[in-house]
Every structure is written in C-alpha cells, then in structure tokens.
Amino acid sequence: NPGNNLNSKYMLHIILYAIVPIIVVMLAGYISGKKGIFSGDDAKKFNKAVLDYALPAALFVSIVDASREMLVRDIKLSIISLVVIMFCFMLVYYIYAYCFKNVTKGDAAVMALISGSPTIGFLGFAVLEPIFGTTPYVALVVAIVGIVVNAVGIPVGLSLLNAGQAEAS
Predict the structure, then answer these.
(1) Which run of H or E residues covers position 83?
(2) What percent of the chain has pLDDT over 90?
C-alpha cells in the first residue's frame, strides 16, 4: 500500500530528525565526561547557563507569539498535564515509600522527584519542534508542562522530602 510506505518514511524522517540529534549530543557529553574533557564544575556551569538563561529565554521568545485565546483554549491541556504528572509523581512516591522496606519516605520523595518529573523544558523543544514546527503552540505545550512540574511537582516533592526527614529524626 503506497500510503503506508509514505507514512513509514515520514515517521522514519521524524525519528531521525528529532531523536537522533538528542542521542548524538548525549553521547558527545558522555564521551567528553569519560575522557575528562569537562569536569564536574563545568557540568554545573552548563546546567546553570541552560536553566538560568537559555531555557527561560527560549520559553519567553516562543510564548510571546501566543495569544490569550490560545492560553484560554489550552486550559484543558493544563488540567490534564497537572493530573497526569502529579499522578505519575505520586505513584512513584508510593511505590518507593510502601513497597520497598529499606527506603525512607525522604528517599521515596527524591526518587519521585527524579523519575516522576519529565524533562520537558530540556527535551520538549528538541523533540516537538522538528515534528510540529516552530509554532507558538509547541512553545505553549512546553511552557504549560514546565510550569506544572516546577510550580506544583517540585514543591510537593520538597514537602514530602521534608516530612520524610522530620519523620526519620
């Protein structure tokens, strides 16, 4: 069927265009770390530059093009993101806190923060833009999920961590 062949070529193109560059950059970072090209201090500086400057600037520049109508229309996405992300976060927390005997609740909170929080801010643009193009809607999706993770997920995780440490004391 010619339609299936076209779809499979399109999907292959998307995978190669969106995913392969991410893998190549990750491999370059891994190899650089193994060869000692960058130190731990360099990694901290890269993270600080990305988190404090590059990511906020990319979000701001992308969202400037979004209209109020787009924001109102995406309230459904915001609610779904909140529910799904917090469900995944709490699921990981409860699995670690109550299914593993040697894990404290503070440790479970750290595990939930690590595995229950998507890295949409880092990978969102890299994956979504090659697939959907550079549009305000892509930036809005990245921003909404990023806000949910940072404004809700991280404070909940830190609260659980503090409660777990207080319980352990």
Answers:
(1) helix 75-99
(2) 3
